[in-house]
Amino acid sequence: MKKIEYFKILLLSLALSGCSNDDDQTVVQNNPPNTFTLVEISNNAENIELEPMFLWTAATDPDGDAVTYTLYLDIIEDPVTEIASGINNILYQLSTDLNMNTTYYWKVVAQDENEAQTSSEIYSFTTRDIKNNRVINNADFTERAYHETLLFNDKLWLIGGDDGDYKNDVWYSEDGQNWTEATANAGFQSRINFTATVFDDKMWIIGGYDGNNNLNDVWYSEDGSNWIEATSNASFTKRQNHATVVFDNKMWIIDGSGRLHDVWYSSDGVLWEEATSTAEFSGRFGHTSVVFDEKVWVIGGYDGGLLNDVWYSSDGTTWQETTSDAGFVVRFEHTTVVFNDKMWVVAGNKFGTVQNDFWYSENGVDWHETIPDDFSKRTGHSNVIKDDKIWVIGGVEQSDALKNDVWTFY
Fold first, then answer.
1. CA–CA distance, 6 with 339 (Å, rounded to integer)
2. pTM given for the model
3. Of 127, 157, 177, which one is at a domain's C-terminal end?
4. What whole-number distance in Å separates Cα of residue 252 and Cα of residue 392?
5. Cα–Cα distance between 14 and 10 in angstroms, integer?
6. For residue 241, which of 265, 269, 214 has the smallest C-alpha distance?
7. Using one digit for the tens of pLDDT, what is the confidence trace for 65-97?
């Protein structure tokens, strides 16, 4: 009996000892970081640069844990797009441009080592509109429209056009303000509505209209003064108001007057091959084409009616439509350039109603508008990219006044 009583006491003692150990265990509660404040960009700020820096106060942690931050930025009021995470300091500099004239919302979330989080307030700001600079109001060349401008050897080159007479002069400038005439009478016929491009370390002009006939000749120059005819009669039909790009180490001609749905290419400017005679987009002229995101794009123009559709091709043969109705008004005789990783549509003509708007897109579907100050409406102008700016040169205004002004936009 004494042994039984002893074992009962021992078991009870062990049981009580176990309970006592459980009671002595303390659960340590993790606390989230303390509240903190957004500093810059201030709430409701306007005219903010396109690559802003974000700044906030430090969020201390009650438990002494290290704190990192996640930045959210969006065009919706409760931002969900994560821009950066694991930020170890209290500022972050954007490295890509935001859209112009757009309201954004931002917040920062602080997180400790145990993933406890504290969110800041949500602030909003609006980015600046496009900036412009009139480089010169009356350049040395005559007022004109339906010319072309190229960037070649780090100079601006203006070629041909219409100043009341059709031209075949060539001018160049290093700064857009001081212009020198390379030749008053280049080897090719005076013309308008031709295309020009840089390919194989040469400047090229293709086709156009000489006042009597459409053309399908091809010329090139290495210095802007001396022009050599690659062919007087290329394989493609004579045309004007077509589009030209350089893609896949070839020059490409896309549609034009006659509205033939055709696309042609050449590796030397002499021999031309037809990529397709039945492109999926409607036959058109007065459209534009650029190379963007490793694709060739066709934008707007006239096919019997004015257009604001957007098409692309990865091979020049098969074409897909991204939108039949882009945000901008239907038009032709506009220009298109690639700038800051976006396609930009600039001004143009809606049958007698000319424009001065700028539209840009990162995908060909979603287009955003920005309208510069003091820039007159025009069509028949030219565009080129130089020194990280869009250059616009000449053109004709609503009143039929020809221009020889030079502008930059950024």
1. 91
2. 0.86
3. 127
4. 23
5. 6
6. 214
7. 999 999 999 999 999 999 999 999 999 999 999
